[in-house]
Amino acid sequence: MTAPGKAAALRPPHPQKGGGSGAATGSVLGHVSSAGLHATHTLHGTTMHRRASSTQLPAAVEDEVKVLEEWGKKEAVRCDEGDPDLEFCELPGIINTPPAERSVAAEAWSRGRWLLGLLVLQSMSSFVLDSYQDLLKEHLVVTLFLTMLVGAGGNAGNQSAIKIIRGLATGSLKPTAAGIRRAMQQQLAVGLMLGLGLAAGGWVRVYITNGDPLNATAISISLFLIVLCSVLAGTGLPFALARAGVDPANAGTSIQVVMDVSGVFITCAVCHVVLDQLAQGLKVVS
């Protein structure tokens, strides 16, 4: 899918402000407007139409345009090499850039190293599952809905990450203490609403399939916590990367892997408390 407005929403950082900051280069359009000029430009330099009454583009704007072209080429290569934030790599100026011609071995290496890194990170969930073997054997419902839970967390976190990435790129959000606090407060409210809504839907889904209200409660509580944590993590990660001087666009895919591992831990911990400890307490009372 390609969103036409993303070319304006995500612009490259100015070279003098740090390559990984993700700050918008709106000065290009400002110079063009003040000079009474009209410029249409794609990131990879495929088209450039200029109209001027009696003046040419200022030298500073020419330099900015060259920076945009070089940035587009570099980002297109980065996306080809498998370091992908899918939303980011679908910018018109990048998606329209023909992939670089490379050998099979070079392409396999550039893509495989990222896949290997993600594979190793996601495999951390195996340690969590191993420590909860008894729970999984006794309560098969946890295994049946584990994919649903971690998938919901990854989706919710990615939505928040993309929102913050776009805000940082356009300059509407700043990686300052006040800006981070304001965004986190807003997304906390969003996360609570999303978590409650999805937890209610998850409870109905599990109960219809499984017929046990305690199992449905354990899964729905896990879903609520996973979604809430995902929204907060998806909001905070782009800010953290920006403050560290790393491209915030990397947060899009990173949050999904992080929440895969975190979601497994949250699910197992919550289900252990509800299905083992709480259920045992209810039996004693009854």
Automatic annotation (TrEMBL):
GO terms for molecular function: monoatomic cation transmembrane transporter activity. One of its GO terms (cellular component) is membrane. The keyword Transmembrane helix applies. InterPro entries: SLC41_membr_dom, SLC41_membr_dom_sf. Keywords: Magnesium, Membrane, Transmembrane, Transmembrane helix, Transport. Residues 1-28 are annotated as: Disordered. Residues 147-269 form the SLC41A/MgtE integral membrane domain. This is SLC41A/MgtE integral membrane domain-containing protein.
